[in-house]
Amino acid sequence: MRQRRFLPSIKMLLALDAVVRHGSATAAADELNLTQSTVSRLILSLEEQLGKQLFTREHRRLIPNSIAITYQRDVARALDMVQRASMSVVTNPDGGTLSLAVLPTFATRWLGPRLPEFLNAHPGIAINMSTRIGPFDFDVEVFDAAIYFGEPSWNGVNHLKLFEETVTACVSPEFAQTHRMESLEDVSNLPMLHLESRSSFWTDWFEGQGGQPVEGSGMLMDQFSMVIQAAISGLGIALLPDYLAQIEISEGRLVPVLKQGVSVRGAYWLVWPQEKSSNVALHAFRDWLTGQSDDISSTHMPAP
Question: Which of helix, strand or coil describes residue 165?
């Protein structure tokens, strides 16, 4: 039996969430399409129902205290779960929904083109995707699983290794025509494009080429899509996973530099919380990803 006192109305919880996020009852009212006085009344009713003060009133302002901030975190997660469940009912009434967090460029360039195969084979399953860079807390973010790159160090989750990564250095055809790149020394004197989340990338590449790592100058970016565009624009040398490099090379937008298909540290992983292990959609998706191993291997460019 659920106790009514501890089940405030959705309107109250939405008001709490919006006021804490925006730091303003006026901004919260705009978001919720309510008047400021209505938002204030909802907050007061919530406090009365819980028997706890959540906000300090100063000159008609609502200032959340520590209780409100902690409560809002949990409420926001619960609201996300309700929203996702409702969306699942509307978009996929037969059930079988998978909420997946995935790396941005991996989602658009590798997973996206392959998803129709999975969805055609599993017409009762819907996949909702959001992009995230790096590990996060499954207790805070409401996802069934995530795909990320790195080492299997994400605590409290199950892991499935998808594939290791090989990389190829690439430049635009115009850059290749105007710069000498016949040796590692030549490359070390040119601008290198760096990715924030792959700090060892260039070190691994130089070592894989049989040389010593160098501290190259160049631009720092947070997504491969930006690195690719910078290389195409002639801003430097991009170090790209081969599933990306071969696309750009085959289209003639980039050309490879020195040896291709160099191994680097880290791998792509599917991870999921233990409590999600019984999710039928996750089971099907995990089995499908496992079956992609041959296709994944074929995307790696052989060394010359």
Answer: strand
Helix (H, G, I), strand (E, B) or coil at 234: coil
User: And the tokens for 247?
Assistant: 């696309």
**Which residue ranges does the chain devote to CATH 1.10.10.10?**
4-90
Is this model's pTM higher than 0.90 or not? no
The two tokens of residue 231 are: 């290389």
CATH topology of domain 4-90: Arc Repressor Mutant, subunit A (1.10.10)
Percent of the chain scored above 90 by pLDDT?
21
Cα gap 177→150, rounded to integer Å = 35
H/E segment holding residue 240: strand 237-241
Residue labelled with tokens 């008047």: 35
Considering the chain, tell me which residue range(s) the CATH 3.40.190.290 domain(s) occupy. Answer: 95-304
| Paired tokens of 157 | 């989750």
Whether pLDDT at 251 is above 70:
yes
For the domain made up of 95-304, the CATH class stated in words is alpha beta
Would you say 172 and 253 are in contact if contact means Cβ atoms under 8 Å apart?
yes
Rounded CA separation 29/42 (Å)? 11
**Do 259 and 209 form a contact (C-beta atoms < 8 A)?**
yes
Nearest to 255 by CA among 174, 187, 188, 165: 174
Burial of residue 252, with CB atoms counted within 10 A of its CB: 0-12 exposed, 13-18 middle, 19 or more buried? exposed
Residue 282 · residue 98 · CB < 8 Å: yes
What tokens appear for 104 in the block? 């941005």
